[in-house]
Amino acid sequence: GSLEVAPNTGIFVSRPAFAENATETTNGTDLFDYETRFVAGLGALYYEYVVNGADDGAVIEERWYLDDVVQQSLSSSFVWSRGSFGIVSDRITAPGASGIPNGRWRLDVLVDGTLYSTATAIVGVDVGTPDAVFQFAASAATP
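The structure corresponding to this sequence follows.
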């Protein structure tokens, strides 16, 4: 499934959602054009997830992977201070005109060292290709 909950924690972290665009408002970042597959040359990959039941002071860690290789420069952690419910919205970007590198981008969200949620976005595909064709090609390429 999309969620791993540690026993008896009462903490819920939604599966991260990815988007191509966002607007900044006084209440934070509002994402739109939600997708899981994006064309090559993407300037920014926006994401958001819900945290419910975490205590202030909990450490939220975002671990980014590109094709299953951890991306230390993008991974980060912060101390939760939003009360028992909050929405985390942010983005990753890449310098230069070529944009976010192509590949399978996975975001793992941990709370106090325990994995609670994960999701994958694929950058650099022809978004007109049907999912079934892409899934077959991806599985055929995986040993």
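The chain has one domain: 12-141.
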